[in-house]
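WARN retry 2 of 3 for item q-0093 after timeout on previous attempt; input resubmitted unchanged.
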Amino acid sequence: MRARMVAIPIIAAAAAALLFAGFSGGRAAPRFADKRANAVPVDTELVIAVDVSNSMDPEEQELQREGYITGLTSREFMSALRGGMTGKVAVTYFEWAGLYDQKIIVPWRLVDGPESAQALAAEIGRAPYRRAPRTSIYGALQFGKPLFDASGFNGSRRVIDVSGDGSNNMGPPVTLMRDEVLAAGITINGLPIMLNRPFGYGMYATQMEHLDVYYEDCVTGGPGSFVIPIKQRDQFKEATRAKLVLEIAGRAPERRIVPAQVKLPRVYCS
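OK item q-0093 returned
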């Protein structure tokens, strides 16, 4: 299923509207990965996969992390949380770069109110920053997929939230792993970071220039999936907060907005 691509100026309004529209409509039938009897029922199991490749400068890294911290503790996130069937979600947060470079920063945590959300945000904030070479979205999805299997939670939705500033440049084609993840009943959403920088040349330059389209066609998918591009540094917090609200609500905005600068042909995924 092709992901929806959402423009920043309307995303906050769309997310807010969901808080009053009800969260059960349009959801896919529940699929449970952790089938153990003691698994805790939650509305959403969310894997946050954060790019720490060398192309992310220190300011971008800080803004990216602060976006998740403020989003997880926002009033809008709390409203979406309370609107779920159980009022609980489970979250884990890991950083990724090359094909075999992934590191869990915060293991699975239950979020059921302001105190647990603040505790999760504090854990994320305490982690030291790091950077590493290459960008393997394939590796990030490959690492994220089995995290649900023994999470300790039984969620009606399972989501991998991928943020990054480049296309897959290490490992097999990202579409191969994307399809494996989708076949397991997991939704993939994207937060492509598209700040002004040299794009190089050839196919890679096209992928970078239209990274939002690349994420839409090559990375994301599943029921209600969507892409929110970040094109200015001051959009990090708003975009991340809106994305988390939509993921916890289990819905995507009704409208599909395609940025004006994106023109055919679509980008290559390989």
